[in-house]
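Is this the right way to post structure tokens for a design question? Let me know if I should format differently. Anyway, here goes:
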């Protein structure tokens, strides 16, 4: 595909393989950069390519270690702004701090808004993200936000598996809209799990609305963090007579005891994308399947660069080479 010499794509240190795959899709090299540390641990970023008057994209997921990767992104944006880049797009496949999007009790911050302000102040002209934890986070930014969804990649994978007698189960009430869309994509039935939070780190699936007896179950969410919700829901649907249990999520965060929980749960396959790099411990799980969002991100970057519509990528009917 032909792109002008006016585009430059740079990678942060959080997910270099994804950035490389995006550039491979676009047929252009990664921008040159040197990232060093001062003796006291401070980072210093030096752009090695000429970016004056160019359309620049920085690919950086703010995953673990969250604060370090966020700070690196901010330094990157400031560096490009001071180097006179024409337009700077922060490509954040996984947006950390997204859960802290409201004050649900007294004397707590709204950190998602703080991070949005930091990214804007550092020099970003627009943001490209995938499956923000809450879609309303787009309104936290005072710059344009292109919000893609991992449903495009995940639903096509599960369609290709040709799962018979599928019922899409929402692992909690808040995920009903996502589950309904997957049920529509796959032509399956819909069921909902009612859960109770036992503690800040533990949830318990208590009741199932709908029937899964003798059916294959698919549970999809935006992310898997501790895996407490999805593993508890998997045991519930198994107890109610489900055959195979598949789990799909855009962001495989896998924090805390997630690996242990998944290995002990009655789950046949866990499918995640490469918005967050998987640890060696996670990769050893036989049930893990990794899909790439590089083609979708590359297509979005191409369209942003050409000032073309990105909205058609928001649906599972989009046509993307390699997806």
């Amino acid at each position: 595909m032909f792109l002008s010499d006016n585009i430059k794509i740079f990678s942060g240190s959080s997910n270099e393989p994804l950035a490389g795959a995006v550039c491979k899709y676009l047929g252009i090299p990664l921008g040159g950069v040197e990232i060093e540390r001062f003796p006291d641990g401070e980072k210093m970023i030096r752009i090695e390519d000429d970016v004056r008057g160019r359309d620049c994209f920085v690919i950086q997921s703010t995953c673990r270690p969250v604060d370090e990767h966020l700070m690196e992104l901010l330094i990157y944006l400031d560096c490009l702004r001071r180097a006179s880049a024409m337009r700077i797009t922060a490509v954040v496949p996984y947006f950390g701090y997204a859960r802290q999007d409201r004050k649900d009790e007294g004397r707590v911050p709204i950190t998602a808004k703080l991070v949005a302000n930091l990214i804007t102040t550092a020099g970003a002209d627009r943001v490209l993200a995938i499956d923000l934890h809450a879609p309303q986070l787009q309104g936290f930014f005072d710059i344009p936000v292109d919000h893609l969804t991992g449903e495009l990649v995940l639903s096509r994978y599960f369609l290709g598996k040709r799962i018979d007698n599928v019922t899409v189960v929402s692992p909690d009430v808040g995920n009903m809209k996502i589950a309904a869309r997957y049920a529509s994509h796959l032509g399956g039935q819909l069921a909902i799990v009612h859960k109770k939070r036992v503690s800040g780190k533990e949830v318990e699936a208590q009741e199932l609305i709908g029937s899964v007896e003798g059916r294959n179950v698919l549970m999809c969410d935006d992310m898997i963090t501790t895996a407490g919700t999805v593993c508890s829901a998997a045991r519930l649907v198994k107890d109610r007579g489900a055959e195979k249990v598949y789990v799909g999520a855009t962001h495989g965060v896998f924090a805390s005891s997630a690996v242990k929980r998944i290995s002990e749960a009655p789950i046949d396959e866990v499918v995640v994308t490469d918005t967050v790099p998987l640890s060696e411990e996670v990769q050893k799980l036989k049930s893990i399947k990794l899909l790439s969002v590089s083609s979708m991100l590359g297509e979005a970057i191409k369209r942003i660069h050409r000032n073309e519509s990105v909205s058609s990528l928001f649906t599972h009917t989009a046509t993307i080479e390699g997806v």
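Format looks fine. Someone answered above. Worth noting: The longest strand covers residues 189-197. The chain has two domains: 7-149+294-314, 151-291.
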